[in-house]
Amino acid sequence: MSHLAIKKSSSSVIEGACALHIDASGKSVILGDHEKLQSVDTRIDSDSITVTIHGNLERPLLFSADCMHDINLVVNSEKKAQIVIGPSLSSRWRIELANRTEGDIFCWPTSKKMAVSQSWSVMVEQEARLRFFELGLADEKTSRGIDAVLHGEHAHMAYFGVDQLQGDAQKSSTLAITHKARRSTSKQSFRGVYGGNAKARFLGKVIVEQAAASCKAEQLYKSILLSEQAHAYVMPELEIHNSDVSASHGASIGELDAASLFYLGSRGLSLADAKALLILSLLDDIFDEITEPSIKNAVRQLFLTNVQTTMVRS
Amino acid sequence: MSVKSLLTINDLHVGINGHAILKGLNLSVNRGEVHAIMGPNGSGKSTLAHTLAGKDDHAVLRGQIEFLGQSIVDLGADERARLGIFLAFQYPVEIPGLNNAYFLRAALNAVRKSRGQEEIDAVDFLKLVRTHLANLKMDERFLNRAVNEGFSGGEKKRNEILQMSLLEPRLCILDETDSGLDIDALKVSADGINALRNSERSMIVVTHYQRLLNYITPDVVHVMVDGRIVESGGVDLSFTLEKDGYDSFITRAKHGGLSVIRS
After folding, report:
1. Which residues of B touch A281 (CB under 8 A)?
2. Could you read off the pLDDT of A99-111 as tens digits, one per residue?
3. Fold of the B5-98+170-254 domain
């Protein structure tokens, strides 16, 4: 299946989305209604592509790239932009949120046929708000490093990560959020479920620089292991250089709760269905943060199908 | 086995983590009967309730449990539930993130499927559950909360009875349903339970105190001491226990002086 075909099917899954695809030669291809993309500018240089959202993007934008160019996403719109990043070959990504803008970015799960290694550089300016969703699914092999800077006062970044991995999946995520400005806020919330031989590594760090007074930062990671062979390594880390900071962090890795499984079983639910319900209840912590209904439905359905398939197999 | 018999337990021995808890328990429950099981702390009442429901760390070491004429010892909790056994928990489990309505519909559909009935859709389910909520004087907002999360003691118990009423089991096991309830909540819960009584459905009511039996009148009262039923009688037995306590039963059990009486 070509990546273009993946894009077509994904845009139809996310109801009402418009899709912008950069093909292998670096040319942009717009799928669907052109009118919906009036607020998006695409500039293609020899080694980089810059996509700027300057007007009001009314629908979710599904973006993907088959080329090896660096990708710059610039959000400079009045309304919140919803951007879904589909499977892409580009390894270097940059996001910039201009002053007082708002954006939700979704890193869609990668195809198992693609081994993905990406580095993301994120800049959030004054009073801008970014929510970054990283979605990991099935037996993908992904390495993603995210280096974010809260550059302006009242800048905010929330990272929401979900993994539901099995088989021989390998996933490594490294996230660092640096507070450079006063009154900036950040949140890292991660839920992982690992079965089969899946191996996952998540390093999450918050750095609060000396000049960044009155900041707030929180980190919470919860993971469940479904098999003896699955492996999860999680490390939350705080590096604080200012005493006027509110910060918290926590991490847990465990099994599905036996008392909950018995409770659900005692109501007639099979073990597979009970496990699927408990897994989804954990992941819903993250899905409930998705405000755009079409994206939320697509994400939830994607994971629901995967969870049910996994439980039937196990 | 008589055609009226729903549950028959013979010489049941159960251990948890290598400790013997039930030590040769016998019990027979006919269709439509309500049996109260009373006893001091540690006598094995809750172990019996959880064993019947199929908790997998409750190892049946010896004996037999027959429900509707078939052995259920080797069945899982879900299979027993689909056969019609329902345990109302003393401490209902909180499941953060799992929507109560979603859970209730999933459970109902699991049971309906096993009975050869069609699955109920979301609209019909809402109509159905609203009727049950009204009967139990429960707010509809219960449906949108996570299962038991942040519920008061009374709300949790009513949520158990809501599930029982939706799933329409053949055997209801109520494990200390009265614990943690004020008198008003107790009356509402008891009304909900009494509304489910009929000639085909049986109940086992596990309790420390006679108080609950003022509202749910049992056909048979059993006294359980040290993993066995040591005396059975009519509802008057519960008044004797309320007045005199369990001491005489415990003392006599230690000296092997008790015989089982079935009224």
Report:
1. 95-98, 146
2. 999 999 999 987 6
3. Rossmann fold (3.40.50)
